[in-house]
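Backbone-to-sequence.
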């Protein structure tokens, strides 16, 4: 498995530690899951935007074809 080193300020690390502890999880597991949620949310938003553009421009694309 590949590794990635991230840099955080002391305040960010404290916040990460507190949130992980509040959920009874390790900082690594908490950070990993947060990144995966962000990736999935970005993909979802991108797909929604692409669908919207396709719907809005469908008639124009049909006439240009």
């Amino acid at each position: 498995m590949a590794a990635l080193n991230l840099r955080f300020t002391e305040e960010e690390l404290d916040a990460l530690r507190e949130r992980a502890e509040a959920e009874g999880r390790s900082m690594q597991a908490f950070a990993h899951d947060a990144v995966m949620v962000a990736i999935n949310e970005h993909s979802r938003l991108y797909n929604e935007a692409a669908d919207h553009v396709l719907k809005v421009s469908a008639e124009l694309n049909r006439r240009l074809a």
